[in-house]
Structure formats: C-alpha cells, structure tokens
Design brief:
single chain, mainly beta, Porin, 441 residues, 14-stranded antiparallel barrel
C-alpha cells in the first residue's frame, strides 16, 4: 500500500508591478522611479519617461543613459490549504522565493534645441515562485494515498520603445511613443495520483488519475503612447499620459494535453489534444491605461501624487479577462545636499483579475512603501551645449504586502470524482532592492 500522503509541488507565476500576474505591468525604469515608487508622471527626470510619460523626454537636455535593475527580491508566501482533502486535512502552505531581474535600459538624445528622441528596452516578467507542501491521511483511510501536482508558468513581456518629444516652452511639453512588444508564455501542468484502499481491503479506489499539459505561446505586436506636461506656475507641474492596449498581430501556439482515469479492474479512459498553430491575430496582451499626476516643486525637492486607471481587457485566446482598476501613488524626493537626495513613496497595485478559476490563478492586491538614496558627482546633468559628465547612483528598498485568493486543489476520495478548484486565502510579503545608474553627457 502506498504511503498515505498528498504532496504538492507548484511553481506559480504570480505577477508583478513590479510584476505580479494580472496586476500592473509597470517596471522600475530610472532613479526617480525607484526612489518614489513610480510617482513620476508630472516630473520624470530620466529615460523612464518613455514608459511613464513620453512628454518627459523633452525635459532631458543632455544625452543620457539609464540602467535599472531589480537586484534582489525576496518573497514570503502563506496560503494554507493550497492542497486539501475532502476529509478536511490541508497543507500548511508556507513558501519563499528569491529572484533578481534586470528591468530597463534607455538612451535619450537632443538633436535640436526643442526636439528630443529616445529609445529603450523594458523587460516586464511575472514572478516565478516554487512552492512545496504536503498533507497526510491515516493509513486506513479511503482518502487518496498519494498525489503529485505541479503548475509551472512563465509570462514575459519585452518592449522595444521609441519616443519623440517636443519642448514648446518651459511650461509645455508634448511627447509620443511607439513600442514593439514581444510576449511569451510557457505553462507546464501535471496532476497525478495513486488511490488507497480501506482497512478491510474491499472498498476504496486503487486506480490512477493523470493529467498533463504543456503549452507554449509567443507573439509580437505594438503599443502607442501619448503624453503632456504643463507647468501653470513655476512651482507646479501637471502630467497626463495615455497608452493603448498592447496588441499582438501574430500568435504562435504549441500545446499538448492528455488525461487518463483508471477504475479498479476496468479499462483506463484516455483523451488527448494537440495544437500547433501560427496565425495572424489582433489580441490584447496588456491593458490600456491613463495616468494623471500633479507635482509641487521647491528648493528642498519635490512631491507628487498620481492616479493610474487601467481599462478592462478581454482576450479569450490568452485567457485574459481583466476588469478596470484605479491605483494611487504618492512620492517625494528631498534634496539633502547638491549631490545627495533621499526618496520615499507609497503605492497601491490592485488586481484586475476576476475570481480565480484555474489551478495557480491568483487575485492579489498589493500595497507598497519605498525608501531610497541617490548620489551624484555634480548637482545636475549638463545642459545642451554645456561640457561635463554627470553620473548618479540610486538604491531603493521596497516592501510590498499582498492579500487575496489563490486557486488550490481539492482532492477527491474516488478515482471517478474530479479534482476540484478550491479558493484559499493567500498573503505575500515582498522585500526588494532596486538599483539605478544614470549617466549624462
């Protein structure tokens, strides 16, 4: 008789705006973004403007290069009962994960006094987490004797961005951007089982249940952005931008799926699906959104508050059904000396997901705080026609708390009964360090 236990191994792709699946697809792109937690729509000072508001590119008078990376991210995850039995036993659901992912590289130049252009590479990838847990039943129970379940998914988005911005005056900036988008998704799901028998050796199920899925999707498309910045008075700046959804124009899908169920003394039941298809499409992979921000500037630094609205998106071929969301960001940068700055920020990241319906799906809302420091070799980058080299280094610590639901598994007592989706509560504590380097000349 097999040992009476159920074991769950799950590597789940759970998003992040920092890349949590289904949540905001924002990336840390630039020192000002890292220090304020993304509150930069009205007063962005780095190449991250290509992502958050292309009008801000017009504010960069010198040629500049920005490199940003998520140096370290550590997650503590609690989801009791991700694996549960019909008799009531459940797994403890305590997990952790560590990762390091580069985020953005941008370059901005000023060919004419009132004209700026920039190119950038932005990488947004959902967080992969490895979960391991177990749950046991008595040896004479009719419950499943052993189970193995895994869901390993990776979704990646790459943006090759270009932007053109016009500085009409010190009070009004206008910019637009065009992104080439490449999206990939890989999913592996395996659910197996071995069923025990009762103590008298008569009742129970001694068959097997197996299910396997391998899926690979890739596609390419585009996104368009438009933004403005306006300074009605020297101490106030207002920014607004809008981005269309990212639409894929082609989609390549390779999928194999099998399922088998066995009865005691009976014939196994088997079904299989295979897909290998390359086709044209017009499928949304990222939501359209708009950002509105207002910043107040002083000799001490600046403070900004932003509102970000994400619009609904439904793409059945990509299993996307997202609702509208509204998030807020509040950030400030304080000038300690001419070369040293401190930054802080608060942000929300609400999930647009509907109720989780597939194993590993999540609906998690995040709340984040950021603290950081920026040090430069001079007070500011050189202006157009001015000689000199500017180098700044920023480091920011970010803590995020997330709470919501994850779709776990409820295992049956009989081989013919289906495995059911069981919604359980999940919490995530995420600790991250972001580094950013800016060079201007």
């Amino acid at each position: 008789m097999l040992r009476a236990s159920g074991v769950l191994f799950a590597a789940l792709l759970v998003v992040s705006s920092t890349a949590k699946a289904g949540n905001s697809d924002d990336v840390v792109a630039g020192s000002d973004v890292a220090l304020t937690g993304g509150a930069v729509v009205a007063n962005v000072h780095t190449g991250g403007a290509m992502w958050f508001n292309p009008a801000g590119v017009a504010r960069l008078d010198s040629r500049s290069v920005d490199l940003t990376g998520a140096v370290l991210s550590y997650n503590i995850i609690s989801a009791p009962g991700v694996l549960s039995l019909e008799s009531g036993e459940q797994s403890e659901g305590d997990f952790s994960a560590v990762q390091a992912i580069p985020r953005a590289l941008t370059f901005v130049a000023s060919p004419r006094p009132a004209l700026r252009w920039g190119i950038g590479f932005f990488f947004s990838r959902s967080l992969s987490r490895f979960l391991q847990d177990s749950v046991s039943t008595p040896s004479d129970s009719l419950m499943p004797a052993e189970f193995y379940a895994t869901a390993d998914e990776t979704r990646s988005l790459y943006h090759l961005s270009s932007a053109l911005a016009w500085k009409k005056s010190d009070k009004f900036l206008l910019g637009g951007g065009f992104d080439i988008v490449v999206a990939t998704q890989r999913l592996t799901e395996i659910i197996s089982g071995a069923y025990g028998v009762s103590a008298d050796g008569v009742s129970g199920a001694d068959g097997t249940f197996n299910r396997s899925l391998n899926k690979a999707l890739s596609g390419g498309g585009m996104q368009i952005k438009l933004g403005v910045q306006w300074a009605p008075i020297p101490e106030m700046r207002i920014g607004w931008m809008a981005a269309t959804p990212s639409y894929l124009v082609y989609l390549n899908e390779e999928t194999t799926a099998t399922e088998q169920r066995s009865l005691p003394g009976g014939s196994p039941q088997f079904s299989a699906t295979q897909i290998d298809d390359l086709s044209g499409t017009w499928s949304g992979v990222e939501r359209g959104l708009t950002r509105l921000g207002a910043a107040y500037l002083g000799k001490w630094g600046w403070i900004e508050t932003d509102l970000i609205v994400g619009f609904p998106l439904e793409t059945p071929v990509l299993d996307i059904d997202w609702n509208a969301t509204a998030d807020v960001r509040l950030g400030a940068i304080i000038r300690i000396t001419n070369k040293l700055k401190l930054g802080a920020g608060f942000s929300t990241d609400f999930s647009p997901e509907n109720t989780p319906s597939e194993f590993g799906d999540t609906k998690i809302n995040f709340y984040s705080v950021t603290f950081g420091i920026d040090f430069a070799n001079r007070e500011k980058p050189p202006e157009r026609g001015e000689h000199g080299f500017y180098l700044a280094f920023a480091a920011a610590f970010k803590y995020s708390y997330g709470g919501g639901q994850i779709a776990g598994l409820l295992l049956p007592t009989e081989v013919l009964n289906p495995v059911q989706i069981n919604l359980v509560d999940i919490t995530i504590n995420e600790f991250g360090i972001n580094l950013a380097v800016k060079a201007a000349f």
